[in-house]
């Protein structure tokens, strides 16, 4: 008599898939190549944190793309679910600055001179996040140095495609609101805000966009502090004024009309 197992015996199916092969751990762990020689101790930290950011940016774009696409179909529920995940990711992105803050400016200087003219300016995925969020600035395409053809095509497509804001206005139109003029939109926001029993999903979606906007601003604010803590008022390796440039972007808003609504309620 054979004992029929009541629970699957994981790991005994004879398959070839392993943790390392599925997640491509050998390839992942082979991507950290410090530029300093002799190697500065903190450069591994610097490379790791940026790579982790880029992985999260990739997932953020995956979620934001779907949020926008579902809004363009008139849905308000799934986009809110997607945005809630994005908020959790963005909080992680703000929080992990703690790790880089453990680096001293002296230790950063051990390898900083090897970094110029590279800088976060050249993060294509960060700019994609800004563009899909509604902060489309074609000027960045011209300022970018060293873009590959594929990266330029991705950014150009992001400038041309609908943003989250375009998606939100479509979802409002599906619910019967007119959104062509600013007056019509303000009237719509006020109706939605004033009757949440009737328009709860749209209200929650609008609030999720405000959360998204707020978290992007919190990342920028935290990034200014991270940068000034390391380089004070020195210019950046990317050729900007450094902290002063970064500070000028903290107050930017993706959805100014949702912030202005606050003063009208
Ligand atoms: C030692 C830490 C860091 C310093 C001192 C620093 C400094 C700077 C400076 C000065 C700029 C302006 C461009 C320039 O002229 O160089 C910049 C831009 C940028 N950095 Fe960093 N950064 C640091 C870490 C990070 C990290 C961990 C990320 C994560 C991806 C990041 C992402 C960016 C992005 C996306 C921009 C473009 C911002 C924009 O144009 O609005 N930075 N950084
Ligand atoms: N812009 C920074 C250097 C820096 O942080 C950096 C350099 C190369 C690649 C990514 C970077 N991260 C953010 O700007 C600086 O001026 O010190």
Automatic annotation (TrEMBL):
Binding site for substrate: 46-50, 112, 237
Keyword Membrane: no
GO BP: L-tryptophan catabolic process to acetyl-CoA; L-tryptophan catabolic process to kynurenine
SUPFAM superfamilies according to UniProt: Indolic compounds 2,3-dioxygenase-like
Stored InterPro entries: Trp/Indoleamine_2_3_dOase-like (IPR037217), Trp_2_3_dOase (IPR004981)
Function per UniProt: Heme-dependent dioxygenase that catalyzes the oxidative cleavage of the L-tryptophan (L-Trp) pyrrole ring and converts L-tryptophan to N-formyl-L-kynurenine. Catalyzes the oxidative cleavage of the indole moiety.
Organism for this UniProt entry: Phytomonospora endophytica
UniProt protein name: Tryptophan 2,3-dioxygenase
EC number(s) reported in the record: 1.13.11.11
Annotated catalysed reactions: L-tryptophan + O2 = N-formyl-L-kynurenine
An example molecular function term from Gene Ontology annotations: metal ion binding
Entry-linked Pfam families: Trp_dioxygenase
Pathway(s) annotated for this protein in UniProt: Amino-acid degradation; L-tryptophan degradation via kynurenine pathway; L-kynurenine from L-tryptophan: step 1/2
Binding site for heme: 223
Heme is among the record's keywords: yes
Manner of cofactor binding, per the entry note: Binds 1 heme group per subunit.
Taxonomic superkingdom: Bacteria
Subunit (UniProt): Homotetramer.
PANTHER family for the chain: TRYPTOPHAN 2,3-DIOXYGENASE
Keyword annotations from UniProtKB, A to Z: Dioxygenase, Heme, Iron, Metal-binding, Oxidoreductase, Tryptophan catabolism
Family membership: Belongs to the tryptophan 2,3-dioxygenase family.
Cofactors, names only: heme
Gene name, Swiss-Prot/TrEMBL: kynA
